[in-house]
Amino acid sequence: MERMENENPDRLSSLSDDLIVSILSHLPIKEVAQTCILSKRWRNLWAIVPSLCFDIHDWKVDCEKFNDFVGNFLLKRDGACTDTHIFRILCQDIMHICDSFDAVCSEANKWITYAVKHNVKILELSFDGYCDLDIPDCLFTCKTLEALKLDLYDSNFMELIPSTIHLPRLRNLNLDQINFCDDNLEKVILGCPNLQDLSMENCGLNMSKFSCHSVQRLRLVGPYTSNETISISAPCVQILVLKCHKDSRVILKEMPKVTQATLYINSSKYEREYNCHLFRSLSGVKSLDISSLCWEEMLKGEMQKCPTFQFDSLKFLSLHWIGSDPSGCSLDTWSAFIKHCPNLEKHSLAPLEKPCEEFPFATIIKGGSILFGYYYYTKLYKLFNKLIFYSKGR
């Protein structure tokens, strides 16, 4: 035993540099920097770690220490001539508790420029709103960037983007809490010719339309729109997620390639006219997940306007009701709709919230069989019985 210990006193250091660097990539950046004091072997390994994540909360929201660490880290690493595959700066929820937050925002320009200079592939910027953030123009012409996430709370994107945008390799674009006006959003999309995934969450969309012709996966959650209706053209989209509040006015143009769609929309009766465009645009969908407030209004309008319309390709259908009480679900509307789905194989029911132990997920399969766990609501029990009746009567 003693002989084996002498032969392998430090098994971790005996690993290859590539394997050690891979391990370091999963550690907090402060711990990565501290490994340089372990031994001569470890002295410079921290400098070739390709994944860098600077989270100000790791410094207990001390903006001065955070600025000093990031600046010194990148300065010393610059001499290693190492590419930076992943670069993240996370500075959310600190504006009201950090007196020198503006200093962080002013330094961010240099840090972003460093990432672009070192051939960054994945970049994430998360900052509080109302800060004086200056994004360098070089970010919008980065030739190596493949994925970009911008979480800029309540910022005006018009003031951040340059006149020229060209991101030839960008495939994934995630925008959170950003305000767009006029043609700014479309300008960004046109500058990303190979964009495949577009996600927008809680963004302000003050425009009448926008197009994304290369996008294959579109996620639009909680958009804030102006009084006018927004028309979205995305002919190549295959996976669609649309979660809107009642004030969002969205019309989807023809999307013949959509095979999977999630629609959570709080529609109002007076909006039934334009909401009917949603289902007509998804005629080829195979899997559909909708909320009760969405289908309650939209299905009625759709079936009234086009009683012969059918989802010929639809095989999987999920219904979610809002809240813990399913009594507001119209069984007549539900039964009428599934008659428009001749090839339906499976449809399911669940509350919109994540199912818990006392409120189970229920699955109804074409032909009348039903699988469910324990339940405690008599209304839910009556609903199941009625649904079994409707399913058997098809």
TrEMBL record:
<dbReference type="Pfam" id="PF00646">
    <property type="entry name" value="F-box"/>
</dbReference>
<dbReference type="InterPro" id="IPR001810">
    <property type="entry name" value="F-box_dom"/>
</dbReference>
<dbReference type="InterPro" id="IPR032675">
    <property type="entry name" value="LRR_dom_sf"/>
</dbReference>
<dbReference type="InterPro" id="IPR055411">
    <property type="entry name" value="LRR_FXL15/At3g58940/PEG3-like"/>
</dbReference>
<feature type="domain" description="F-box/LRR-repeat protein 15/At3g58940/PEG3-like LRR">
    <location>
        <begin position="109"/>
        <end position="252"/>
    </location>
</feature>
<dbReference type="Pfam" id="PF24758">
    <property type="entry name" value="LRR_At5g56370"/>
</dbReference>
<dbReference type="InterPro" id="IPR053197">
    <property type="entry name" value="F-box_SCFL_complex_component"/>
</dbReference>
<dbReference type="InterPro" id="IPR036047">
    <property type="entry name" value="F-box-like_dom_sf"/>
</dbReference>
<dbReference type="InterPro" id="IPR053781">
    <property type="entry name" value="F-box_AtFBL13-like"/>
</dbReference>
<feature type="domain" description="F-box">
    <location>
        <begin position="12"/>
        <end position="50"/>
    </location>
</feature>
<protein>
    <submittedName>
        <fullName>FBD-associated F-box protein</fullName>
    </submittedName>
</protein>
